[in-house]
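Worked example

This section walks through a single chain of length 337. The input is the sequence exactly as stored; nothing has been trimmed or padded.
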Amino acid sequence: MDAYVRVRGLTKTFAVRRGLAQVMRGEHPVVHAVRSVDFDIAPGETVGLLGESGCGKTTTGRLLLKLLEPSAGSIAIGGRELAGLAGTELMAFRRDAQFVFQNPFDALNPRLSIANSLSEPLVNAGIPKAEHLDRMKVVLERVRIRGTDLLERYPHEMSGGQLQRIVLARALVLEPRFVVADEPVSMLDVSVRAGILNLMRELQDTLGLTAIYISHDLALVRYVARRTMVMYLGSLVEDGPTEDVIREPLHPYTRALIAAVPQPRVDQSRAPLPLRPGTADARKVGAGCAFVNRCPVAIAACTAERPPLIDLPGGRRVACHLVQAPRAAVAAEPVLS
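Given that input, the structure is written out below as tokens.
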């Protein structure tokens, strides 16, 4: 089956504000937000993009929807190469690909009624005004909002759960085929998260959407995504079926993420995380593995060469010298201290 989303060598750098000394030396520091990322997503597949804050997840999502332009690499969605899309072709892509924003309170214009917020994408897509109300009724029904009473309300008159349903409705009103959801329930109370997640799973299955869920929350990704990609400082370090990645993580960073999930204990004890002291800084990524300064099992090869993301049995991929190198060769190398 051909991939619906095809990404090759995707890279995004941002210039960093320079200090006087850097200006004098002629330096142009950059942040490598996304570093040579490759992946495919099949039609109708749901994928989780997992990692801590600042790892490049949201930047990747915005690149996929052409909200940012890549510094290098290519993106093809639904057979369209995004590079150079303009005019009617870009408008057609905007109808097929939508973003679900993290904060429903910020995603909606407080000066617009719900009806105006839902009709805005229809206007931009050139949908005749006579069709707007019928489309809004259909999409409100899909997100479990009965009737049209809420259409004349404003965002401040609604609860967080209602607003998130409206944000979902606005993303779906154009009947897209591809959706990127960025931390879709992180701003909601725990009491309403389950309902929104159940709704999103149901919509994905009913509508046959191809979807990416961006999150730092392992439980959320496990619930909504059958496949998970793990990102660290702009690089994909692991990719595979979600249950396999959680039960048997192959990359040291994935193991640390899973170990960081709180576990109920009577004595409140907690084992130390499998990490060396250090910080994640996208401005200081060297030629080797991005995780090398925090990895507890890093070897000399990890500082010299960035490990490629290789295919393994069972639909898994991992970027780690310890997984890829012969065990005898690895045993002969010293662990970095």
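What to look for: The longest strand covers residues 30-41.
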